[in-house]
Recover the amino acids of this structure.
């Protein structure tokens, strides 16, 4: 019933709004129209996804990288979304699957993926004008460990299977000290 009334009303409105003098050609000027993308239109910035392995803890990892990521975000004028993973292998997998735009990985994880032709190096850290870094072996001070040889017969833990300083360096030292 309401639909019929609406149709009749619309027909009457259109019929009575037109007059016989409306038979002349009407010219419409489209030269002063706005484009669909006017200068005030701002498309939301595409997010940048970055992966980081949380080798220490998620909170500490965020603390270490937050200033750098805020800087990159400001320079690119794009928001950054951090995806933290527990291991370098998980981060490498995200890179392989294009789930992130870039990642912070250690040299061991980089070499593994580079040899497979899956990633490329974007930047390397330079500390005190050097592109190298050191591995630290931390021991209980009450165990009288003063050199690597003092670990003989003791248990040992490493941080990540793909970590150069956290595993490969240790394996190298074990092979050297056989």
């Amino acid at each position: 019933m309401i639909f019929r009334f609406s149709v009749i009303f619309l027909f009457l409105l259109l019929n009575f709004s037109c007059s016989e003098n409306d038979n002349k050609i009407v010219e419409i000027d489209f030269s002063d129209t706005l484009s669909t993308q006017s200068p005030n239109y701002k498309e939301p910035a595409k997010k940048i996804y970055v992966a980081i392995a949380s080798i220490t803890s998620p909170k500490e990892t965020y603390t270490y990288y937050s200033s750098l990521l805020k800087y990159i975000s400001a320079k690119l004028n794009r928001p950054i979304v951090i995806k933290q993973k527990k291991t370098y292998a998980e981060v490498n997998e995200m890179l392989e699957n294009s789930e992130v735009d870039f990642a912070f990985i250690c040299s061991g994880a980089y070499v593994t993926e580079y040899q497979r032709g899956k990633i490329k190096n974007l930047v390397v850290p330079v500390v005190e004008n050097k592109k190298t870094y050191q591995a630290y072996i931390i021991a209980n001070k009450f165990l009288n460990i003063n050199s690597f040889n003092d670990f003989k017969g003791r248990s040992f833990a490493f941080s990540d299977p793909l970590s150069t300083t956290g595993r490969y360096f240790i394996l190298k030292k074990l092979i050297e000290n056989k």
Summary: The two ends are 96 Å apart (CA to CA). The domain at 48-115 is CATH 3.40.190.10 (D-Maltodextrin-Binding Protein; domain 2).
